[in-house]
Write a structure and sequence with these properties.
The structure holds 2 protein chains of 2 kinds.
Chain A: H1 3-30, H2 33-40, H3 43-76, H4 82-94, H5 97-108, H6 115-120, H7 129-153, H8 157-165, H9 170-198, H10 202-207, H11 218-226, H12 230-258
Chain B: E1 7-12, H1 18-26, E2 36-38, E3 41-45, E4 50-51, E5 59-62, H2 74-84, H3 89-103, H4 118-130, E6 136-140, H5 148-164, E7 168-173, H6 176-182, E8 185-190, E9 193-198, H7 200-205, H8 210-216, E10 219-228, E11 231-236, E12 239-242, E13 250-256, E14 262-264, E15 274-285, E16 292-297, E17 303-308, H9 309-314, E18 322-327, E19 332-335
Helix pairs in contact in B: 2-3, 2-4
The chains are: A mainly alpha, B alpha+beta.
Amino acid sequence: MSLPFRLLLGLAVAGLLLLLGLPLASVVTRVPPAELLSRMTEPALLEALRLSLVTSAAATGLVVLLGLPVAYLLASRVFPGKRLLEVLIELPMVLPPTVAGLALLLAFGRNGLAGRSLALVGLSIPFSTLAVVLAQAFIAAPFFISAARAGLSEVDPRYLDAAATLRASPAHTLLRVMLPLALPSMLAGAAMSWARALGEFGATITFAGNLPGVTQTMPLAVYVALQRDVDAAVAMSVVLLALAAGILLSVRLAPSWLGPIYRARAGRR
Amino acid sequence: MAERGVTTVIVGESGAGKTSLLRLAAGLDQPERGRIVLDGKVYVDPDVGILVPAWQRDVGYVAQDYSLFPHLTVEQNVAFGLRAGGTGRGAIATRVAETLRRAGIAELAGRKPAMLSGGQQQRAALARALVLEPALLLLDEPLAALDLQTRRLLRGELRELLRTLHCVTLYVTHSPLEALLFGDRIVVIEGGRVTQTGTRDDLLRHPRSRYVAELMGTNLFAGHAGVGAEGAVVRTGDGDLAVSDPGEPGEVYVTVDPRQITLHPHRPEGSAQNVFSGPILELAPEPPSGERIRVILGTRPPLVAEVTREAVATLSLREGMTVHASFKATGTRTYR
């Protein structure tokens, strides 16, 4: 590699480190460790953390439950309207989260499309914990579905052919061949969904509101704390950062301990 | 049409359509026309709208690359079809153990395919298909992916195994040796069409295409039989052949055993009526001992002769050298 090229690369990396790394480093170093630890045991933070973890886990579960069949469909079949479905699933990724929240409100709110029927049954979703889960699921769904779909469609068709010649119905093939071989991709997708759900703000605050203990997840709590006690906000941010980094790291490390099982999988990265 | 207990070999060049045929039989591809019937059960009949999916057919398929499931052990691979079919746990364990034992891979039961050699994978793939006792066994170039030594070893084993089976076996290969070795019946495919079927002897005595003749290592001409000045003659595009009585005039095939052809450095006198001149293209010793040499001639028509090593030495035969190949009319065989 020539010198000017190396310089260019170095500059780019430095620039990126500055843009991404500096802000993150600032968060982590702002508050001294001792104070950080004591902040982390504050009831307000713990409350928000508990809520975040519970709702994001539930949202991820919902996404996997509904998303897996859809991913399978997209990976294996052609049907009229398939492209529209693909666009629909991708939308939450590009939509401004507050717009998403508004849309949810209009659908499930008291006067909304579905809200009216739900109200008859006595179920009011907006500004409840359930609303948080739905908002997070809405935003996080595309992450899992696209990863799962990619994983499923990358399974070598030779194995699917072999399964068919071994008396396996399509369902049996899905369960015993496709899912196991697509597992790494799906786990990564689920992890990304979870991370995204944890960090969800705009749709949550619009659809679920900002009620401590009920709908005030960590991102919302940070927002509120910023207005009165920056250090409290910093402490919560550090926790969120650590969680996010932890999830992403596990996704990176997973292939090395899942690897031996799938070494011969289609030869593709 | 293939029968139980008989191994039918489908032989042809790569791309001739052999694998496609197997895939159609297995149900992995669908034909536009034609019917597939096994044991009286109709699997495919587009005219009537019958299309039985692969997983409902009584078929065993061993792909060229074996396609063993990488995330399952050998034992789990072999058990796969039984589990998919709903057989009980206990019954599965016994049948799988027995099959592994008979295949000689019982000690590999707990290994994953990535940890097996080519020969071991082949045995495992075969076991996986055979444990289901299919009515139709489809083998797609089962020995092609193996190195020479393993291939030689498994060839013998496979031959013995196929003898013991009661299913219909279709064996696809591009190797003439395997065709002759395994083929109780041989089906030759060229360019997507069947050009000849029959036993080894049928193909050897009466080849019906240049490819088959080359497969069998014999000489074939096609032409019109008639009567010439010196007796019976077959006129081919490349010249006239003096033959023994062909019967009535018409389109015929003529075959000449390579051993009936003698080579001369100069144009021979005497009673051999068919003489063709041309360069020697290749001298190839015949296995196993190389005592006999195959001489491929660039004559018109092209000829393959077989001579002894001594003859090659005596005549100082070399590649590129021009020789005269002769054979008697009595050395030819004519048929329709």
